[in-house]
Amino acid sequence: MLYLLVGLGNPGKEYELTRHNVGFMIIDAIAQSFLLSDFKKKHNALMSSGNIKSHKVILAKPYTFMNNSGGPIANIVRLYKIPLDNVIVFHDETDIDFCTIRIKQGGSSAGHNGLKSIDTSIGRNYWRIRFGIGRPNNGRLDLSHHVLSQFNNLNAVNNTISTIIEHITLLLDNDKSTFKNKIKDLIKYEDISN
């Protein structure tokens, strides 16, 4: 069975370690951890493939800006005939506390433009791994500046990504409830410099 793991973000060096690009960061870490193929540009996305345990996977980072992520994902889903139940999208979420992970299938985009684009292109019945980035702590930062700025506590982000990778086979084994239980009690971090 083939799975599509998608990370949302914006292309370009200036966005690499920003909160909005945590989806790209997760996909890069998965590729590195499981020694998957080098990323190549195909179907308007950077793509990698290989196996995670016994599961065939395609990793994709849409090479469009966040708000246009749906087109490349729709192309990949159609070309490889991937059922939406096998599509897992990793993305940032401002309405969840920093480094808290939530998982759900379907639902609304909650104002996330990358998800809106995907919903319009393939429907809503795919899986979402929501990586909490929280909201700005002070009233001086607007939300767009917050999501496009870099993490203050990158160590916490990397630890949380490592936990996702440690339990990713549960997602692919369709054991989403055990995955939820494994990640629900993560250490609570704050996005402040140490």
UniProtKB/TrEMBL annotation:
Function comment: Hydrolyzes ribosome-free peptidyl-tRNAs (with 1 or more amino acids incorporated), which drop off the ribosome during protein synthesis, or as a result of ribosome stalling. Catalyzes the release of premature peptidyl moieties from peptidyl-tRNA molecules trapped in stalled 50S ribosomal subunits, and thus maintains levels of free tRNAs and 50S ribosomes.
SUPFAM superfamilies reported for this sequence: Peptidyl-tRNA hydrolase-like
Subcellular localization, as worded in the UniProt entry: Cytoplasm
UniProt organism field: Ehrlichia ruminantium (heartwater rickettsia)
Keyword Nucleotidyltransferase set for record: no
GO MF: peptidyl-tRNA hydrolase activity; tRNA binding
Its EC number(s): 3.1.1.29
GO cellular component entries: cytoplasm
Cross-referenced CDD domains: PTH (cd00462)
Residues at the site labelled Discriminates between blocked and unblocked aminoacyl-tRNA: N10
Binding-site positions, tRNA: Y15, F65, N67, N113
Active site per database record: H20 (proton acceptor)
Keywords on record: Cytoplasm, Hydrolase, RNA-binding, tRNA-binding
Superkingdom, taxonomy of origin: Bacteria
Reactions it catalyzes: an N-acyl-L-alpha-aminoacyl-tRNA + H2O = an N-acyl-L-amino acid + a tRNA + H(+)
GO biological process, one term: protein quality control for misfolded or incompletely synthesized proteins
Pfam entry (one): Pept_tRNA_hydro
Site feature (Stabilizes the basic form of H active site to accept a proton) residues: D92
Enzyme class, spelled out: hydrolase
Family, similarity comment: Belongs to the PTH family.
Name of protein: Peptidyl-tRNA hydrolase
Subunit structure and binding partners: Monomer.
